[in-house]
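Researcher: I'm comparing several assemblies side by side, and this is the next one on my list. It has 278 residues spread over four chains. Same procedure as the others: predict the full complex and return the structure.
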Amino acid sequence: MEKKIDDLLKRNQLSVTSGRRKILELFLQQGGALSHSDIEKRAGEKFDRVTVYRTLQTFLEKGLIHNIPTADNSIRYALCKDDCGGGHHQDDHVHFICTACGNTVCLEEVNVPAIKLPRGFAAEQVEVLVSGVCRSCSA
Amino acid sequence: MEKKIDDLLKRNQLSVTSGRRKILELFLQQGGALSHSDIEKRAGEKFDRVTVYRTLQTFLEKGLIHNIPTADNSIRYALCKDDCGGGHHQDDHVHFICTACGNTVCLEEVNVPAIKLPRGFAAEQVEVLVSGVCRSCSA
DNA sequence: AATGTAAACGCAACAATGTTGCAAAATTGG
DNA sequence: CCAATTTTGCAACATTGTTGCGTTTACATT
């Protein structure tokens, strides 16, 4: 785990610091997506808010994470798959928000469908957000 | 126009005030979606920020508007079609965000596709956000 | 048209969230 | 181990969202 995290950072030309380690660890533990405030809370008093903002910004730019729009004014972030490095993302999967537990997860195995737009509109990116009850909560 | 706005309010059991009139007018002028700050700016000095928050909240509850998730921490709101009144929405259409002009519009004529989820997941609502270049900007 | 009542508004104060500049500390490559 | 660069923490600030309360406005009834 420790090694996996350090590798992830080095592979993306980022220096290894305790803040970055901690945040990646939180993502790996969680599995799903985290908002800025999730991270702030779970990281405890150990890191400054500003550091969290800057770290997420850096991870976004390097392509370690991608962000997920939400309807509640709190962007979520989730780890990218390995093939998303170097700034360009390959995260055309569906995001699922559980209304019971509140978790957001990436459904890597569900591809976003092609959307046929009216004449004159050119699609560059498609985001699909599904809300409902997740596997853990419906069981 | 004046009459249309007043009708819209009355049909939703809302008293007609200048603030509500103004905000509905902005939506009708704009055609597309507006964020809270859009409204604040365009309404000028005439209304308190709190009034805008409360008015949007009321419109949401009554079903005059629906909100559109975004990836930039600024929910957009758009007028619902007539058949969305009374709290339950029928806005299963695609939302388009233009990367050139920044506008967000509802593509009423494009339905959201059915999404096949893995076992154990139950979908309640599906949001589709397409970004790209809109008709006006590609012309 | 006047009036009473309930709803909506504006203001103020506050809480939460996001941004910027700069000096101190940590990381990395040599 | 050392120097150069990057990252961090702090402080100050800007923006965004929330709450309570007294005043004003809208509306139904007279």
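Model: For your comparison table: The radius of gyration of chain A is 16 Å.
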